[in-house]
């Protein structure tokens, strides 16, 4: 499955991952939480990012997210599926624009 991953203080990158829950949890280093974004995208983050000592990463609708996040999408049955090439480009741009700018 193709997703776009954004780690703190790094540019977003394309990754091919397995589709199972374990692989998703490994990326965010813990239990996952899914938030619906624009264009049918889903943002996946660590469910407990507010309680862990993680670095700030992105801001979504005024909310700061910590730790590694990634964008994917779900099919009609709710299962995560690969992003297309055009979706990868858009997701990469979205994550990079949401990045926290540390001064």
TrEMBL record:
UniProt keyword annotations, A-Z: Plasmid
Ranges where the DUF3846 domain occurs: 2-89
Superkingdom of source: Bacteria
Any single Pfam family the record assigns to this protein: DUF3846
Protein name from the UniProt record: DUF3846 domain-containing protein
